[in-house]
Amino acid sequence: MKLEQEAEAKLLEAAVSAGWSAEEALEAIDELKRHELESIATQH
User: What domain of life (predicted)?
Assistant: First the structure.
């Protein structure tokens, strides 16, 4: 879990550095998580 939090923090930092707002970055990260969960669910 800690590794996931560190990865999310790095994604957020990179997105903000690239000009995204923190809100946009968090929404994009949440969307990526949803897609990942959907992908895992459809594989089983």
Answer: Bacteria
* Rg, the chain, Cα only: 12
Tell me the two tokens of residue 38. Answer: 């959907």
Number of structural domains, the chain?
1
Rounded-to-integer distance, Cα 30 and Cα 32, Å: 5
Q: What is the pTM of this model?
A: 0.75
- Tell me which residue range forms the domain holding 7: 1-43
List of E strands, 1-44 = none
7, pLDDT greater than 80? yes
Residue 12 corresponds to which tokens in the numbers above? 């957020």
- The answer to whether residue 44 scores a pLDDT higher than 80 is no
